[in-house]
Amino acid sequence: MNAFQRNESKETLFAFISAGDDPPKGDFPVQKKSPKLCGSNYPLSIAFIVVNEFCERFSYYGMKAVLTLYFLSFFHWDENLSTAVYHAFSALCYFTPVIGAIMADSWLGKYKTIIYLSIVYVVGHLVKSVGAIPSLGNQAVHVILSMVGLFLIALGTGGIKPCVSAFGGDQFEEEHTAERSKFFSIFYLSINAGSLISTFVTPILRGDVKCFGEDCYALAFGVPAALMVLALGE
Predict the structure, then answer these.
(1) Is residue 86 exposed (0-12), middle (13-18) or buried (19+ Cβ within 10 Å)?
(2) Residue 146: exposed, middle, or buried by beta-carbon count in 10 A (0-12, 13-18, 19+)?
(3) 139-170 and 177-207 are packed helices; what angle lies between their axes, rounded to 10 degrees?
(4) For 43-231, CATH number?
(5) How far is residue 90's CA from residue 202's CA, in Å, rounded to a whole number?
(6) What number of CA atoms fall less than 13 Å from residue 32's CA on the CB side?
(7) Which BP terms from GO are recorded (predicted)?
(8) Distances from the Cα of 94 to the Cαs of 115, 130, 137, 167, 233, in angstroms?
(9) Count of other CB atoms within 10 angstroms of residue 39
(10) Domain spans of the chain, in order of start
């Protein structure tokens, strides 16, 4: 084979495609573009992620804002026991991200982990709210429901923590690095806004609103539960 034949054989390996031609199917997979927010480079899904995170942080910190008072005045526990249970719950919330990370990386993926553990989170808030209704059973029932609710909340809130921010970053295309950076700023703003607002609002719901003839812990826990339901619906 001479040099001309060798060059010709190499050229047959490539097919010239003009600007107006469609690439052969199967050879050049087309990546589907995600819907954009108001014509910008921000994916529409990040709006739901930011709202979800605001509601989740509101529900978590709103519940924790009155949790120790709940132990002291509703269960009539002493300060040592109330403080111990409060910090045990907080410690569990910091441990469960290990579980969420393992589930997301080795089993379900980030999206399904967020959905499934958010459902666990919602159930925990609902159980916790029901346990704060004075007319429902005796103190033993209230304590059992509250502890089960706290365990589910810790599993839910900790489990989704390692997934949400990473899942939000995955929504952006590679070339939109500036938009991704701004998203994380807005994302962490929503976290702090939800935490700050709930710290003021939830104690007001507990102290200024009366239900069942006393402080309304059921409402103080119920509003965060409702916001978590809204977050899951997003």
Answers:
(1) middle
(2) buried
(3) 160
(4) 1.20.1250.20
(5) 18
(6) 2
(7) oligopeptide transport
(8) 19, 25, 32, 20, 25
(9) 6
(10) 43-231
Tokens of 77: 């526990």
- Rounded CA separation 89/93 (Å): 6
As a residue count, the chain comes to 234
Two tokens, residue 111: 């999206």
User: pLDDT of the chain along its 234 residues, tens only?
Assistant: 444 444 444 433 333 334 334 444 444 444 456 666 655 667 777 888 888 889 889 889 988 989 999 999 889 899 999 999 999 999 999 999 998 999 888 888 888 998 899 899 999 999 999 988 888 878 899 999 999 999 999 999 888 888 888 888 888 877 778 888 888 899 999 999 999 998 888 888 776 766 666 667 888 888 878 887 877 766
